[in-house]
Each structure stands twice: as C-alpha cells, then as structure tokens.
Amino acid sequence: MIELKDIHRNFQVGDQQVHALDDINLNIKAGEYVSIMGPSGSGKSTLLNLIGLLDQANTGQYLLNQQDVTGLNDEEQAATRNQTIGFVFQAFHLVPRLTAFENIELPLLLAGIDPEIRKPRVEKALLDLDLTDRSHHTPDQLSGGQRQRVAIARATINEPRVLLADEPTGNLDLKSGQDVITILEQLNANGITLIVVTHDMNIGQRAKRRLHMVDGRIESDQT
Amino acid sequence: MLVYKSDIVHFSWRALRGYPTRTFLMLIAMAIGVAAVIMLTALGEGARRYVTNEFASLGTNLVIVFPGYSETSGLNPVAMVGSTPRDLTLDDAQTLTRSYSVRRIAPINVGSVNVSYEGRSREVPIIGSNYELMELRHWELAQGQFLPKTDLDRATPVCVIGGNIRNEIFGAQRALGQWLRLGDRRFRVIGIMGSEGRSIGVDVQDTIMIPVASAQQLFNTPSLFRILVEAKSRSEIEPVKQFIINTIKERHQGKRDVTVVTQDAVLATFDRILGALTYAVGGIAAISLAVAGILIMNVMLVAVSQRTAEIGLLKALGATPRTIVILILSEALMLSAFGAGLGWLLGELGSFGIRQAFTTLPAQAPLWAVIMALVVALITGLLFSLLPARRAARLDPVLALSGR
Ligand SMILES: Nc1ncnc2c1ncn2[C@@H]1O[C@H](COP(=O)(O)OP(=O)(O)O)[C@@H](O)[C@H]1O
Ligand SMILES: [Mg+2]
Fold this sequence. Notes:
- Chain A has 223 residues and is of the alpha/beta class.
- Chain A has helices at residues 44-51, 74-84, 100-110, 115-128, 144-156, 174-189, 201-206; strands at 2-13, 16-28, 33-37, 59-64, 67-68, 85-88, 162-166, 193-197, 209-214, 217-222.
- Chain B has 404 residues and is α+β, with helices and mostly antiparallel strands.
C-alpha cells in the first residue's frame, strides 16, 4: 500500500541543513495499524505529511498503491488526497464559521459531488460518530472531543484507504482521547490503514506495529 | 474535481458573513466609488441637458445673423460681442424675408435707457424688435398685446414691459395704457410679458420692448445688434444660412461681413463641451473605483493570511490550486457586486436628491456611466484579488496548517 524508498527530507534553517527525514525505508500494507513515536523534532510529522502528499521528499521514491506519486502534478495530488487519504490533526482544523455538517461535507464538496447525494452521506457519518444532535453547531459550540469526532467524520467521509492522525489526542482530556482512539481503531477494524503519531506510550502500545523515530531515522520497527 | 457553482457561491457567502466588519467596510468603499461615478456624471449630464433645454427655449430652427466676420468659421467671439466693421440695417433685415424658406425674421436692437414714471426713474435694458419676436421665441403675454404688426421702419411709440418692470414701476396700479418716459420720448404701455419669457442671459421680465425703428431713434443708430431668422423646417436651416450669406454679401458690395450662426451649431458646441466634461468627471470618479480596487486587494491579502490555516486545510482535503483561486475570486467578486449594487442605489438616490434640491437641473446619470461604473467595479474587484488568490493557491499546506 505505502512503500517509501531511501527518502530524504531536508529543511534549510538559516545556513543549516536540518535532516528531518534521513534515509527512510518503510513498507506499510493495506489495513495495518501503525503507531509512530519518538521525541519531539524527530521527524514524525514530516513523515506523516509526506505519506499524506502534503509534503515532498528531496530524494527517494514513494509508491502509493503501486503507483509512483513522486512526480504527480498539483491537480493529481489534490485528487489523491481527496480520494485516498484522510487527515486528523492535533488542532482539529475545523472551519470556524461552518457548522459540523458543513465541515464534514467539505471533502465531498471539493470532489464536486451532487449536494443531493452528499446529504445522506453526511447524515450517516454524523450518526456513526454520535453527532446528529450537533449537526448545526459551529466548532466553538462543541467540546474538544466532539470537534475531533467531526474532524474524523470529515477525514473518512470520502471512504479513504489511509487515515493519518497526527497526535489526535494531544489537545484532549483522557476520556475523550480514549473515545477518539476507540473510534480510530474501529475504523481500522473495518479495513482502513491507520497511522497514528503520538507521544502517549499507552496509545502507541495499542498499535499492532510500532515505529520509533530518532533524528529523522526509524530506530525500531516492532510488531 | 469540478466544484458545483452553487457550492462556490454558498462558501463565499459564508466567508463574507463570517467577517462582517471587513465585508461592511469593503462594501462601503466599493459603493462610494460607484456612487461617485453615478452622481458626478449625473451632474455633468444634468448641466448638459439644462443648457440644451435653454437653447431650445431660444426658439426652433433658429439662424442668428451677427454683423462682422472673421475667416475662422464657426462661433466667432469678436462677432459675438458685436465689434462692427459694417452695419446691419433694417433694409438688410427686410430683404431676408424674401426667401420661401424663411418663416419669420426679428431684427434686434439693444441698449439701456433711463425709464421714468411719476417722478420715479431707473435704468432699464431695452430690446427693439418687431411683432415676430414673440412667436419666434415662444413667449407668452400676460396682458394686452405684443408689438404692433407694422412695417419695420415705423417708429410707433408703444412698449411691452416685463412683469418685474410692471411691478416695480406701477405696483398695484393699472399699467396698460399708461405712458412711460424712455429717455426723452414717451411710450404707451400696450402689453405685459407672461412669466414664460426667459432665455439665456436676458430675463425678459426685467426688460422693456419697443418697435425696432423706435429703438434706432432712441439710441440714435441705424444699425442692428443682430437679426434672428426662423427657417421653415430643420432641413431648411442650411439653405437659409446660405441665402442669408449670399443676400447680405450682394447688398454689401460683394463683401462678406456678417457671421451666420445656426442654433444647431451653437448647441452642438455646448453639447460637445459639456459632454466632454461629463466624460471627464466620470473618468475622475472611476479613479476612486480603482482606489476601492486596491482596498479590496489589501483586504483580500489580509483575508488570505487570516485564513492561512483554512486554506491549508482545504488543500489537505483535496482542493486543487485552481479551486482555491476560484473560491477567493468569487468571494471578491461577490463583494464587489454587492458593493457596486449598493453604490448604484446610493448614486441614484443622490441624483434624485440633487434633482429635488435644484429643480432646474435634470441630474440623471447616463446609461453608459452606470454600466461603466458597474463593469469597472466588477473588473477592479476581480483584477485586484488575482494576486491574493494566486498567493493563497501557492501556500504550502504543511506550513499553512502549522501556522508557521
Ligand atoms: N517547514 C520546516 N522548516 C524548517 N524546519 C522544519 C520544517 N518542518 C520541520 N522542520 C524541522 O524538521 C524536524 C522534524 O520536525 P517534525 O517532523 O515536525 O518533528 P516531530 O513531528 O517529530 O516533532 C525538526 O527539527 C523541525 O524543526
Ligand atoms: Mg509533530
């Protein structure tokens, strides 16, 4: 599903080169549940962004679904992000002036799907995530846990193959964090490939496959 | 990946509503620009129509003969003030009636004399002419009759007085039939002008009219100030003009020494000048629209940086750069469209206010100005948001999302 070969990602900071990713080689099969842990600044987010096509490697090859996506143009990348990948962020990133319903609807809207077809799909997603009565609330009227559930509904509304979560519980209390993890694991149980970046040992240990990163390298890969 | 138009409109609408202060200020900026164009061109157009109407009130199919001629054709300022190389005489005027194309002529003589009645006296402008003048100028009488239908060279001692003169001299007394002293002669009042008698320069209400021959005696001059000629129809104006030039030339030993101006030509000149003026003020006002455009650009730039995270998110959710551009442009376009609409309304209201305040000024923006203002508003709005839109489309999603 995801194949990374000899990936390097450097950032120029002042006159210094930062090796955010240093020769990454990684294969993730469809349906896997992977956690990525490691100290702050070790390159976890950079790796996730690269997998999610938000960022590009300086060198190396990235095959997604056996297709080389290194050379895709802007439009093709956007389409792949829309159809194949779902993102869940630590900061939720909901559009503040839009309701829960409208936020969840966004990927469908961007995909140019008929509003009549969108409606039942969004309603189903709201129901699945127990948000039906929050449908017309804006983000500032929702709790953190509810916001992240809206974000998950949005990330999965297009039924992507891969779900990428960057510290999804970082801004949540213990209880809502556990709820969110439970939801993500359920989605994984239903077949989605799940990659979670986390600081939290307890959460990281739950994954069937655990990567540990240090200084831009994958130090250990346990199953 | 083509986003539905209705979705784009809805999304932009929500964005505009999401930042009401910003939206309101932009609307005002755009509206003021459009309203300025509409009101200024309304003023220019009002002035043009005012002058045109005034000229029309001079009479229809009018040809005016001045003494004096300079080679530069058209309106000649020297001829206008009447510096006279060779006089126009009553006989000249008389011969002009001989053309079939001429409906009527009115010779004009002007001057001012001391008018006295029962011990009171004052200086009053005098017009010497004939009975045709009233028809020619579309005037109306309030009382009595106009100048008598006699030969041009008969100096009958009668006068027709303006309404203001009547009030000042006679007050509540009966004016008709009274004898007025003009200079060293006595004239009997036979008519009083109605209130319609008004035209550029002279207000008939403040003048006294007497037969042209009487005026020549009074001012002790054989010459005329000008001759007004009315052609039978619009198409006869040019032939009449030629006829006048040739006839006078013949009578003046083959020398062309009169200037003949058609009302059309004068009107066309004023029309051109005031039309140009309207274009000019319209253009100046359009600059304020461009200023509004620059404001829109700044605000959209701020909007883009305010909403960096949102744009990054849209990209993460699969928005193409093209979609981002379209979303930003449609937001700017909606903003300018609403602003332009509001400005149109304000401009028309303002023009209405001007018409109410100055009833003689038909201030109404011409259609071209309204269309120009609206089109320029939309185009500047669109043009000036291209830069912010492109900037948004180029945002790096990772940086945008991290707020770096
Ligand atoms: N856009 C960037 N510009 C410069 N340096 C960056 C940028 N993104 C990440 N880095 C650097 O790359 C390294 C890895 O960052 P990141 O992947 O965010 O770490 P993590 O998510 O593991 O905390 C860090 O040293 C960080 O400072
Ligand atoms: Mg990180």
